[in-house]
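Here is a tokenized protein:
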Amino acid sequence: MKFIYLCRMYVKPKKSLGQHFLKDEKIARRIVDSLILPSEEQQAGVKTRVLEIGPGTGVLTKFLIEDKRVDLYAAEIDNESIEFLKINYPSLGEKLLEGDVLRMNLKAVFPEEFHVIGNFPYNISSQIFFKVLDNKENVPQVVCMIQKEVAERLASPPGKKAYGILSVLLQAWYDIEYLFTVDENSFTPPPKVKSAVIRITRNSRTALECDESLFKAVIKTSFNQRRKAIRNSIKQLLEGRPAPDSYLFGQRPEQLSVEEFIELTRLIYNK
């Protein structure tokens, strides 16, 4: 334990990478325990693949490696953290993926199902969720710590100010649970904002029942002018055609549920 602590002293948090290392092991244990995995009996000897994003100084890694149900992979971009992990967790071996997770071909690494966990860097958390959406058929669950404001936005229902583009896109495919808040003093260095842990779990939807590319365009275009009624914000998507006769076009984007955005997309597509 003393050796690990001394090694951690030489892994310096880097502002350019948005690093704030969690130091409270009780919270780390709680985060890992929030990952819902089958029991060893249910697994019948087959471990569950888990990708930890940004392990840093291994505060989550330690508990994940101890869990006999987990086949752990870790994606890390910081060279100091990589060297730390190689020294203290040699069992990771080739499953320590060196580089930018946003540029990794996760479908090649994980041709089958894998779960995601991590203390996500604040400056790329939204991009990580878009990466998850790109791999949604293989990612049944994500447990992560992110900025509290972002967590509230993702979990927000329609009608709330926090409800936005990523709220709709994620809620189309995942159920989102806000689990608990984490104080600034649990990190080195302390961030200027509170953090939160969320769990997102793949829902039962297998298809959107509309054109998915247009669905994304409708959401992004609508929220980019969120103060306007949708009939005014999506004029470019209608390409000069009048808006269909539906109450949906008189609403503002934060008022629409996922199902209503799907219906809106169908109306635009069929017009």
DSSP finds 13 helices and nine strands in the chain. The mean pLDDT is 91.
